[in-house]
Amino acid sequence: MVTKHPICPDRIRKVPKQFSWLDHRLVSEHYIDRCTHKAAALYLFLVTVSDAKGMSYYSDRTLAQRLGMDEPEVIRVRSELVDIGLIAYRKPLYQVLAIDPEPVRTSGGLQSVEQIFKRIAEGRS
Questions:
Q1: What pLDDT is stored for residue 16 in this prediction?
Q2: Which Gene3D superfamilies does the UniProt entry name for this protein (predicted)?
Q3: Hey, CA dihedral for 84, 87, 41, 67, is it positive or negative?
Q4: Mean pLDDT of each 10-residue bin along the chain, 125 residues long
Q5: What is the DSSP letter of 62?
Q6: What pLDDT score was predicted for residue 47?
Q7: What does the DSSP assignment read for 65-125?
Q8: Nearest Cα to 101, choosing from 83, 81, 124, 119?
Q9: Are the C-beta atoms of residues 92 and 59 closer than 8 Å to each other?
Q10: Contact between 64 and 41 (Cβ < 8 Å)
Q11: Amino acid 114: pLDDT
């Protein structure tokens, strides 16, 4: 196993007080693989500017200027992120969404005890 030592120990990251972070499951659950580069850029921007509930609001014009896109492209990549399930949008608000765990199968497949109890707690059978 490789022992890791910070290259710049005086610059180790911390969660900033304005609350901004990226979920590792973007990579481990392959969400990032389903994004175009421009959609990933929009997602990064929204994560950076959102509050603790994931909420932010920027106009298409401002996003286009900040990200080097035109407005129709912003609309297209926003739709891509909505379809993937990473954001929700209702003009003028964006919400960066929590990445949900794998959905529980309801078609008779095997389920873990944890999944069964979770469904019971949520009032689903």
A1: 63
A2: Winged helix-like DNA-binding domain superfamily/Winged helix DNA-binding domain (1.10.10.10)
A3: positive
A4: 80 66 84 95 94 90 98 98 94 90 56 72 64
A5: H
A6: 92
A7: HHHT--HHHHHHHHHHHHHHTSEEEETTEEEEPPPPPPPPP-SS----HHHHHHHHHTT--
A8: 119
A9: yes
A10: no
A11: 73
Q: What is the DSSP string of 1-61?
A: -PPP--SSGGG-----TT-----THHHHTSTGGGS-HHHHHHHHHHHHH--TTSEE---HH
* 36: its two tokens: 């175009």
Measured between its terminal Cα atoms, the distance across the chain in Å is 44
d(CA 19, CA 10): 21
Which token pair is 108? 């008779």
